[in-house]
């Protein structure tokens, strides 16, 4: 944190410094600051920049006629009044002191105005006439908008803005000074370059006619201003007020989806510069500066400034609400709950229509104290709920419930959820037994589902523990949802929590099985002598929560998938040992995870042996994911460098897997599997150089899968997978060359069709599919030629491959009965078009 050398006491900012004082403070060699046409240019600029300078509300997207009229009225009110009597005789004598200290009396009010502003009486008269004309125009537009033709009024207003934008913006040199260009004069030498870049930014057309500022405009504004700050600090008095006003409004803009991530940091620095330059702050600027000071780390100084502003900002009806809301947020974050509560009471009891949601940060601060002031926080929640009434949203309830859960106030959290579900008609606090419509696992399940969906996983676990203490046992399906959410987060802490809860459920399952065998009641808190004892004890000491929910097959599946993806092969074997003791049948999912784990552990023989044992001896029915896992176990898919011996063995294994896949009774259960399985089979056979098996597999999958190769797969097969996995110059060249070869194959196929009598027009959908199948086989022949094989060699081995793969009747004989029997699309025929 930077040294605390700056304290922004905004409440003491003054809006007036006399000209003689400025002259005495200005160095002798500094040119007197001329503000010729500055008053006029400020008004013109605020008309041409509707969004930033329209009002004190930073969320205003455009400047309408009312805002402009109000702006002009405020500016008129801010001008010094002529202190005269009924006879226009001056009541005071005006004096002017020059740089040498000599004083001279001024004749009248006109001479005083000229001395104070630098404008003679004629120029001031013209400005006043212009203001009257603007007021008349605005009044006319407002009347037209309210009574006659709003659309026409809006068109005239937009045209009016464009005229001002063209006339008073975008000019440079003496002409720009004449028409009141927004610019910073008076910098030469080494500082001229950075200031000139900032002045050039001011002339950007998008800032005039763009309406809502863009993120790039805000970023560029800060870039040019921050680079010019050092130069500007040498002569802050040269920066006109309209420049400060423009910088503040643009850098503080927030709304309409505009990205301004460093908004508060920029406002904090800008407020320091404005204070150094002696620029008066508007009330809205003071509030934003205090907030920026707090967010940037100057918390004590910001709160102290806020306290000093009670008599000014806190008593102004226009800033009363924003002032106390800011104070409540800052005091709550600081932990000063007593003062925050007094500020909240002052705000809520005022007639300024406060938002009761301002109590949320106060409730959070009360629950964050040690120990939490839960009763006080609950009273504040009830107060907020009473004030909001039907305007209380589900998101509001979620915030309140999360606060009580974080503070371990489970009864209050449950009561808030009951309020949300039953509109506050039921009170369960202090009851020893929950009502039947609350004290059931269906109601608790709704709460858990909402907490898990919102990402409050620790809160969901607290609900599980609390529900069991109130006699409600959470079902396994709900706890499995919590375990899965913990695992999907992939953080070390959440993975440990998921494993601990899953093993507690397994221990409850083992206790139930043990009690069922001996005909006694389960003792969930008693350790059981079993082979699983070492696996359970690894999860830590005796937990504070004795789970009574028994593990299901899904619980074992979640643990198996986690251990397999994290390559914890030893833990996975322990899990399968416990699975037998828990008397839960092995599913195809668990078998797939174990096969995958053996393959990752480079134990391919054990993986294949496990598959044969479980499918042939234990009667487990494989599914599509099983065969996807088996094909991924082949050496051509596991090894980086091809082993010829293992590759030849892969040919027989792949044909055997394909035969089992065709004969097994399974169907596709997802579009992802439908896309991955055929692709993996074709690539496995191509990398093993089983070209005959490749063509047989492609033809068989066309009949039983309804598979047709997409264009992307054809290009991948032609160039290789590696060309798409790493973006290098060599791979890019391979893809380009492969695309040329593929296009040549397509042209050759089209010429063959023309020679056979085809008209040569666009192909039908069926003809396009046949074309892709033909191109697929041509790619295989193209690959085989690299190893001195031709189409006759491939066709010679197709009969043998078809017999070994169990699809001779499907590919060679095309028996419709066999095809219908082996079809794998029964369950997804309705989704066939999607796949």
Structural write-up:
The chain has 835 residues and is mainly α. Among the domains are: 492-621, no CATH class; 678-831, no CATH class. Strands 1-2 form a two-stranded antiparallel sheet. It comes from Chaetomium thermophilum (strain DSM 1495 / CBS 144.50 / IMI 039719) (Thermochaetoides thermophila). PPR repeats lie at residues 587-622. Pfam families: PPR_2.
Number of strands: 2
CA-based shape: extended
Strand order in the sheet with the most strands:
1-2
Q: Rg from C-alpha positions?
A: 40 Å
The low-pLDDT segments are 1-90, 162-180, 539-543, 827-835
The N- to C-terminal Cα distance equals: 58 Å
Fraction of helical residues = 55-70%
Major beta sheet summary: 2 strands, antiparallel
Average pLDDT reading: 79
Structural class: mainly alpha
Number of helices: 42
Proportion in β-strands: under 5%
PPR repeats: 587-622
Protein name: Pentatricopeptide repeat protein
Biased composition (Acidic residues): 73-87
Family: Belongs to the PPR family. P subfamily.
